[in-house]
Amino acid sequence: MILLVGGRLGLVFFLHMSLHMAQRFCYLSSVKTISKGDHMQGERKEVQPEYLYRQMVRARRFEEALASLWRRGLISGELHLGTGEEAIAAGFAAHLEDGDAIALDHRSTPPLVCRGLPLEPIILELIGSEKGLCSGWGGHMHLFSRDFLAASSGIVGSSAPLALGFALANKHLRQGKVAVCFFGEGAMNQGMVLESLNLARVWKLPVIFVCKDNRWAITTRSKNVTAGCLTKRARAYDMPAWKVNGLRVDDVCKTAKRAIERAREGRGPSFVLARCSRIDGHFLGDPLFRIFEEPLEQVKTITPPLIRSAIAKPGAPSGARARALFCISKAIALAGADKLKNFKDPLFISKNLILEEKRLEIEREVFEEIEKAVRTSLEVAGLKR
Questions:
Q1: 140 and 251: one domain?
Q2: Which residues contact 241 (CB under 8 A, 6 or more apart)?
């Protein structure tokens, strides 16, 4: 009973703080007009495949640039990339307008790039510069932008109550505007997410819950820790829930339009389960992925302790140890599948949406854009290119 009361008080506090922050964000944005860049879709019109592909390529190349900076030691700590989630980010961002809000998880950079945030402040933030998006205090998991009503957090599942704050503020201050939150399927077992689903429906808030299902909860297969069907779980809160192939940007875009328009019309929340891939593991340097990047070195590193564990006495029966070794081998193989198979790469899948000549032109322009952003950021920070 104490835990129950404490958990609910915690959620109430979280919601209060989320609402307070969202109200400040919304008020400030009503005073200061958001400046649309070339990468923001403000008007409600048909989204062109070229635009979607460009946004996906921008998100991917930006992630690759961040990975390069991390490997050079310019970004400290763990770096959680959103490679494999580009179609989800681009598909939803394409239907957002000024005044709409996004609440993000620890893989926040693809949605921020697709939403149209300037690239240089993000890079500067990740390398710890005072001139960064959050003055160097946020790092890659805690990025905030008042102008774009965007906020992220490294706490698993926290984007859900944060989105409620945005949506509640919009309902009272900016009717017709929506909030979209992104989280992984592992977060669906967090109490704050489930209570947010409930409260969103009770208050009929204009919020869309986007669950990015890459089938992994850090290093554990999701099916081993999550019971039942997630869309049925969401429908239990009396809201529509759709499944979509999160590797196909055209499919995501159609579903996003449906969910966002529904919220704008004041018909309440909805839930989208988008299957995607996790190309670079849980974080850069993920042990499950190192064996594919440095096979000989990693085999030498991990084989001796596994053998010692397999023959150590006393211990579990030989059959149980054999099953454990099999599970480890299977986990490594499954982790590598997303990285090594092109059919799980949203960019590879989306190539056929546009003509090759146009695709190559987009990729060349994006390469130059990202290179310029990185070069400018490092110059501003006083670092060598």
A1: yes
A2: 230, 231, 232, 234, 235, 270, 271, 272, 273
Residues 183 and 213 grouped into a single domain:
yes
Rounded to two decimals, what is the model's pTM?
Answer: 0.84
Q: Are residues 210 and 242 both part of a single domain?
A: yes
Per-residue confidence (pLDDT) for residue 22, from 0 to 100: 53
Residues 41 and 163 in one domain: yes
pLDDT score at 4: 40
The structure tokens listed for 258 are 């449906």
- Do 164 and 236 lie in a common domain? yes
Is the pLDDT higher at 40 or at 81?
A: 81
Pairing of strands 207-213, 270-275: parallel
29 shares its domain with 177: yes
Q: Answer with the one of 275, 300, 321 that is the final residue of a domain.
A: 275
What pLDDT digit, counting tens, does each position of 168-210 carry? 999 999 999 999 999 999 999 999 999 999 999 999 999 999 9
Average per-residue pLDDT for the chain: 87
CATH number for position 12 = 3.40.50.970
What are the distances in angstroms from CA 231 to CA 135, 138, 212, 272, 274?
Answer: 39, 33, 12, 8, 10
* Residue 29 confidence (pLDDT): 46
The answer to whether residue 355 is domain-embedded is: no
pLDDT in tens, 147-157: 999 999 999 99
Q: DSSP class of residue 35?
A: P
Closest listed residue to residue 249, CA positions, set 50, 40, 37, 38: 50
What whole-number percentage of the chain has pLDDT above 90? 65
84 dihedral zone (left: phi>0; alpha: psi -120 to 50; beta): left
What is the helix (H) or strand (E) element at residue 68, kind and residue range?
Answer: helix 49-71
Looking at residue 33, its amino acid is: T
For the chain, what is the domain count? 2
Same domain, 308 and 205: no
Q: Which residue range is the domain that position 120 belongs to?
A: 2-275
